[in-house]
Every structure is written in C-alpha cells, then in structure tokens.
Amino acid sequence: MTRPADPGFGVYVHWPFCAAKCPYCDFNSHVRHEAIDQPRFVAAFRREIAFMRTRTGPRKVTSVFFGGGTPSLMQPATVEAILAAIGEAWTVTNDVEITLEANPGSVDAGRFRGYRAAGVNRVSLGVQALKDRDLQRLGRLHSVSEALRAIDLAREIFPRLSFDLIYARPDQSVAAWERELGEAIGHAADHLSLYQLTIEPGTPFFDLHRSGKLAVPDGELAADLYEVTQAVTARHGLPAYEVSNHAAPGAESRHNLTYWRYGDYVGLGAGAHGRISDDRGKTGTANHRAPETWLSRVEAVGHGIEAEESLTRDAQADELMLMGLRLREGFDLSRWETLSGRQVAPEKEAFLAGHGLIERLDTGHLRCTPSGMMVLDAVVADLAA
Predict the structure, then answer these.
(1) pTM, entire model
(2) How far is CA 87 from CA 115, 159, 298, 300, in A?
(3) Which domains can be identified in the chain, with CATH numbers?
C-alpha cells in the first residue's frame, strides 16, 4: 500500500442515537424513547455544513462517513439531504467513498436500497460476534442469523462492505476465536475491523469488571488472540493495514486513512471532532456532545462547536506520529521533521529498533514492526517523549 501525497479531505457526520446502549460502549451515543425529529436535524446539519465551508474554503471531498450512534436509524431521505448539502458546499470527487455504519438489527431491504440510492457506496456493519450468547452478553439486539442476513443483503446492494468483530471477550479461547474469525472471513467481502475488547471507564462493563463480576482475557491471552488475528487474516488475503483494520489490497477505508495519514476532515453533529487547515495553520474542533445542546446551538449561531484549539507545529507532529504508527506503512519522517523542526532522537530510535519494535522503510517512513504493534502505546510514549 503506497501513501499518496495528499491524504484527502473527509467529512464525518455523527448520528448520536441508538436503539439501546451497549454495556461496553463509551462512544457519544444516546437512547431516546420519543421519535427523533429528523427534518429538524437535517436543517441543523445543513447550517453546520454551510458554516464549516466558511472555515475550510473550497476543498475536494474524497470521503464521507456516517458514524454514530446508529446511522442506520436515519431515514434514507435524511442521508440524501445531508449528502446534497455536502455537495453544495464542497466539490465531491467522482470516486468519493461514502460509508454508513449500520447495525444488523436495524436494517431492512427497503432502507438499504434507499441508502444506496442516496449515494452510499460502502456500508460498515456492527456485527461484533458470531456467537448468539456473546451477542447477548455484549448487549447487542441482533442475532447471528440476522447478522448473516444483513451481510448477504449488504453484499448484494453495496459495492463495498466491511463489518466489525470484537475479540478478547469473556471466556474466549484462542481456538474458539480462530474458528469464529475463519467463519467471518468466509462471509467478508474485502474489509474487516477487528477490535480487542477494552474496559472503558464510565461503562457498565467497567463497573462489572471492577467488582469482579466480569472476567476478560489477561495480557498474555490477549496477546495470543492478537497474534492469531494477524496470522489468520493475512493467510486469507486480508492483512492488517492498521492495528485493528484488515483489507484486501486496495480495499482499505479511504476515510479512516485520511485520519491516520493526518489529513483534514470536518466533524459534523453532536460530539464530532475535526481537523481543518487554513493559512493560519491547523485547528482542532470539538462539538457539544449532547444532541439537543448541539441542535440548539446550531439553530442559534450556525454551528455546534464547543471548543477549538489552534494546534502548534509540535502538537501536529505528535498527532502525525501517534496516528501514523498505527498504520502498517508508518508515518512520513520528512513531514514529521518539517512540522517538528527536528529529527527523531537517534538514541530513542536506536533503542526501539534494537529491540525489534520499529524500522525505517525505503519509502522514508518509520513504522512499528509486528512486535511493536503489540506494545504500540509504549512505543509511541518512548518515541514522542
């Protein structure tokens, strides 16, 4: 996988509503028992898009990503209206990647076909497990049979498909995960996102784990599960291009690569974050997290931004390194040196390389080795310090 000179310009659209809150989830997602006024939200998205256009100037949109929450709770007309507003604000490339996250339990043929008609050309399904017992423990509302039907339907309707699985689940063995992963690959098209279960503060799983009522694999078993994940996916032609993402060559998520290659992107909706550049440099934006607060704010002043930060060149260099080390291709050393005004400390690089954790490539990139990926946080901490 070669890195283009331009990492692209993405638009992220956050739909913050879910049918139920999963006990492991710390995302900005909310359950509302009354109907959502989708036309009102569309009007707000249109206003925020128009405002962000004044901040970014003319750009070419290479990807749009509807995340959440559960974007498949949106009506196709809502998706279509937001995409139309994006097309009015910026130039959209002919080969734009438009992804929508969907839960298998919230989809039907009519809605999927409506998303496709609206312009969505890639769907990402939150399958999470191919064991009914584990789906129940994870708080998912769908069954394995529903997930498989959704996968088949998505493959029929959309040009591109990805789905997510969570591993290192309670009571999961290496052999069981290897079998489940092999089954998943049999259903996959060209992309899989495989995340290790993490126990996040503020979630029900955190409280259960702290009280001893939820046991997850220890560090050694988690490492074994990670290793078998890499081996099985590579053997089936879906190698990791990022620490948790696997794809056939050419089928990588263009939108997520914009993040990891430290490109610019606009964040729209409650809790969305963005990174945008202009003549003054790079700015980070963060929107109000509460959906109703974001909505009222946009209606009042045209945007939902709660905080923004002018990023120093050192801060940009740190983010470039942090994001790039997640990728198999690594990060561009010359770009990092231009931002930071210095070279990577030779003694730190020598130490990490000597332990087989990082390596320089002929492309001018520095990357983690497979061993380094297993201790990625420690490598980043040592290299960036």
Answers:
(1) 0.93
(2) 16, 21, 20, 24
(3) 9-259 (3.20.20.70), 314-385 (1.10.10.920)
